[in-house]
Amino acid sequence: MAPLRPSRYTLDPMRRVLVYSILLLIGLGFSQALPTLAGDAHDGVATVVRVITMVGLAFIMIHVGFEFHIDKSKPRTYGWDYFVAFTAASFPWILVTGYFVLVMLPSEFWADFDAWKETLLAGRFAAPTSAGVLFSMLAAAGLGATWLFRKARILAIFDDLDTVLLMIPLKMLIVGLAWQLGAIVIVMVILLAIAWIWLHRVTMPVSWPFVLLYAGGIVAVSEVLYAGSKVVDPSVPIHIEVLLPAFVLGCVARRRKLTAPDGQNDPVAIEHDLHEVLERPGEKRAAMWVSAVFMLVVGLSMPQIFEGDDQHIEPAPASLHAAAPADAVDGQEQTLDKELTVTSSQPSMGWGTIALHVIVLTVLSNLGKMFPAFCYRREAPWRHRLALAIGMWPRGEVGAGVLVLSLSYGIGGPIVTVAMLSLALNLVLTGVFILFVRRLISADPGEPDPAQSPGGAGVSLPA
Question: Which pLDDT does position 287 carry in this prediction?
Fold first, then answer.
């Protein structure tokens, strides 16, 4: 079979992340004028933005599930990988949260529990590495067959999974204990069990039109469940975010039944079969368009940056919070024990101060990803481990999704603006990060330049 040729309608990875960053910033710009431009139609426009955002996020997470492949016969071998991924997701989160509270909030909030719980959720955007962006950029750099690529793939998927799972206790922290949250936990446990037991065992179409249909179905079920639970108890409705259900659907899916000589499922063949579909030009083009629209509407979902007087910045209307039902935040005083006002009550600041915060926050979030450089000493030399840590720096759609979920709980103000701009800056710098990675790999003594190896694929190291 002839190798697939790139479509002339697709962008190379470097241009793609640049386009995503520009769209995110364009969306932010329009979000400031949307209430005025939309006028009386604002609620309708906001509903459309919300639905598009959630469908796009579900589409992306289904593809993340497609990429999730493990050898279930050797679960212990993944224990250390999960721990490393956990640190790579947790350290940036801790550093960013601490910066939000101790630097960006007035000192009277330093011991305020509400300030910490709100910023814990807002700071989670720094945790997940963008798996899709990372994989495509490493492959484009000629590193697709290296130890670094294989290890980065495992760690990026695991830290995305860790981000999804941690949203459960964070939601409990924000909303409080209620039987509805217990029901959500039960649903989440069932979904995880399904993902483990039926990992890539359910034959279904996996081309982009069907994935888009699945994403729409997941969003519809989530919204129907939310509306139905409000009838039972309007104080704490059940709202299951689409992150985990979409990820689990991707985990269980496979294109066709493939068996090994012993008659059992052949996980290697299934993995290659899924990748064969995902690498088709049409599939890559569709995924690119969905991600592009998603980044635009994420920017469009951002709250007003400067509104109100110098002492208080009002959060944007709830209907503009694209991750939440239209009345989810308007009724915060009905659904939460205490209205979220800490992060949205920060003193206003100029663009120069915001730019400084963005730079510092970006540095801190990337420093938090450096722990993998001190691991895997028996598997790879220092330069490769350092390259692995730097390779975990790119952020993307999942981090943007976390920001949107933060908005759905009424978190706003300069903190969210700085977080979103830091995310955009990381996207813009992704190509630079990958250049660092490639230079570290090619400069390793005794290792040939990845670009000079057969097919530009690089040299594999023992795992």
Answer: 86
Q: Which of 27, 44, 41, 60 is nearest to 297 (CA)?
A: 27
Cα–Cα distance, 197 to 260 (Å, whole number): 18
The Cα–Cα gap between 411 and 404 comes to 10
How far from each other are the two terminal CA atoms of the chain, in whole angstroms?
A: 29
Residue 443 and residue 386 in contact, taking contact as beta carbons nearer than 8 Å: no
The full set of domains in the chain, from first to last, is: 13-455 (1.20.1530.20)
β-strand partners of 265: 259
Cα-trace Rg, the chain:
22
pLDDT means per 10 residues in the chain (463 residues)? 46 69 80 76 79 86 81 76 90 93 86 83 83 66 76 82 76 68 78 87 91 93 80 64 84 76 63 80 87 82 53 36 37 41 63 90 94 91 92 79 72 81 82 84 57 36 31
Cα dihedral: 50, 54, 60, 63 (round 10): -160
Phi first, then psi: give them for residue 309, nearest 5 degrees: -85, -175
List phi, psi (to 5°) of 306.
-120, 110
Q: Which residue type sits at 289?
A: W
Phi/psi at 410 (5° precision): 85, 10
Give the model's pLDDT for residue 234: 62
225 C-beta neighbours (distance < 10 Å), count: 17
- Classified as helix, coil or strand, 187 is helix
Find tokens 């269980």 and name the residue: 252
**3-class secondary-structure state, position 203:** strand
- pLDDT at position 179: 67
pLDDT at residue number 458: 34
Say if residues 138 and 148 touch (Cβ distance below 8 Å).
Answer: yes
The two three-digit tokens of residue 422, written as one number: 């830091």
Cβ(315)–Cβ(344) under 8 Å?
yes
CB 132 within 8 A of CB 89: no
Rounded Cα–Cα distance for residues 363 and 429 (Å) = 12
CA dist 432 → 141, 357, 363, 381, 443 (Å)? 11, 21, 14, 22, 16
Residue 430 has, within 13 A of its CA and on its CB side, a CA count of: 30
Closest CA to 296 of 29, 15, 58, 32: 29
User: How would you classify residue 160: left for phi > 0, otherwise alpha for psi between -120 and 50, otherwise beta?
Assistant: alpha
Angle at Cα 390 formed by Cα 76 and Cα 434, nearest 5°? 120
Task: At 324, list the tokens.
Answer: 């939440």
